[in-house]
What does this fold into?
Amino acid sequence: MRGNLDKAEQVIGILLDNAGKYTNTGGTIEVCLHRQKKYAVLTVSNTGEGIPPEHMDKIFDRFYRVDHSRKHTGSYGLGLSIAKALVEQMGASLSVCSVPHQKTTFTIRWEST
It folds into this structure.
């Protein structure tokens, strides 16, 4: 795939950290890398509360947190916005799909070499 290895590692770290924070007790985190036509596709999924539909368009905004009433996890709502910026700098895309109270999946699509 095309891109900067250091940036890719940072993005994957952010997504794994995020999944760890929001996975429900006894839940699962799944990481998958596969080829889809001319793309390398990485998904990071976790079970848990999920992201309500009304928050989906803001999830990559700086300092945005879905629920400010949740216990403070030591984060400030920057990780996903940094991940999105790094992915875009590499010419790739980052998207999210979430089914509330079931599963959230972040997907990165890099053009293959």
In short: Residues 5-22 form the longest helix (18 residues). The helical segments are 5-22, 79-89.
